[in-house]
Amino acid sequence: MKNPFETEDRAAFRKTLRDFVTREIRPHADAWDEAGAVPWELHAKVGALGVWGFGVDEAYGGLGFDDCFMRAAFSEEFARCGAGGVPAAINGRMISIDPIQRLASAEIKDRVLADIIAGRKGSSLAVTEPGGGSDVANIQTRARLDGNHWVLNGQKTFITGGMTSDYFVIPARTGGAGLEGISLFFVEADTPGFSRTELPRKMGWWCSDQATLYLDDCRVPASSMMGDEGRGFTAIMQNFNLERVALIAGMLGMMKVCLEDGIAWAQERQTFGKPLIRHQVIRHKIADMAARIEAVEAYLNQICWSVNEGDMPVAAISNCKVFTSKALEFCASEAMQIMGGAGYLRGNRIERVYREVKVMAIGGGSEEIMRDLAVRQMGL
Ligand SMILES: Cc1cc2nc3c(=O)[nH]c(=O)nc-3n(C[C@H](O)[C@H](O)[C@H](O)COP(=O)(O)OP(=O)(O)OC[C@H]3O[C@@H](n4cnc5c(N)ncnc54)[C@H](O)[C@@H]3O)c2cc1C
Known about the structure:
four-stranded mixed sheet; 10 strands; four-stranded antiparallel sheet; alpha+beta; Butyryl-Coa Dehydrogenase, subunit A, domain 1; 13 helices; Butyryl-CoA Dehydrogenase, subunit A, domain 2
């Protein structure tokens, strides 16, 4: 359908991204995923596209403007490479850039932000702990003030980019129980007391790294506190909104992969004397996938428009994330069904999308937590 929000700039940006993914990623995605890593040079190549500069001042290497539609286009187009591990590997930094540029000291921003945005250095946001990821207000990692340093103790886990990032945004408890006791810290990987181990053998996202981080008397300068003491929970919650928009857009890209590859296979494959696509049951699967894609696209466009208007539609984002992960689950299953046994073999995009549905339904706020948040936002 014609998109009422399309502009020349947005269309050109999307084309640049699509060409880049077709040229630089698609031919290598299978091999990188099987090898378990992307080449580090990819970070700088992607950085040169400007995709990490949204909402960041030009003085720090940013674009000096923001546009939610362009952010969404980035996530959607990169997901279309068909290997979720590729965007995860390069894009772990995305969810840490906004807190760094909004809340870190001028000294930290001057020193690190341009390198992160250009893809020369990696950064991650480390919220989840071994004791749980959904209940953010119950974070157990602690920070105590000792002279002009904060001393952090605790563990974080499932941290995307955890093995390769140089910089981390880490919430820790500086006060009592509950959400008002949480503050945010900027921690560098070479700080004494910081160590990490890789999470092995994941279901999907093979070419991205996830790590457990250990903070054992990890001393950071007092100026490493990001924003006000006790305001870390609010900062994390605000940050989740755009992360979730990106996840929705990524899932939309994955759904389009299912439809495209499903149609291509159905046109090629012959059963009972005619192409699969001529069988009504298969045609209905295609219609059902296409309808869900159009619904997600329209929902996402409306969300992006609201965000650009300065109104963060938290309930809609939460509901849309659940709606989209369910729609993706449907599309992955139907596309796999169209392919039959061939879909079950490694090396095709649908097989990988099918394995990578669950991380989208759990990461960045699970379906259960999203529904809960949406209803709370309705005042209930
Ligand atoms: C590949 C991958 C990458 C990740 N990257 C990062 C990262 O970069 N940074 C980071 O901080 N985290 C990251 N995560 C962690 C992710 O955000 C968490 O897995 C997620 O928030 C859920 O937390 P949990 O796994 O601890 O599940 P839990 O919180 O233990 O929940 C377990 C299950 O119970 C459900 N549940 C929990 N509470 C309730 C309730 N009140 N009512 C009903 N159901 C409930 C949840 O929805 C979930 O289904 C990543 C995870 C994965 C798998």
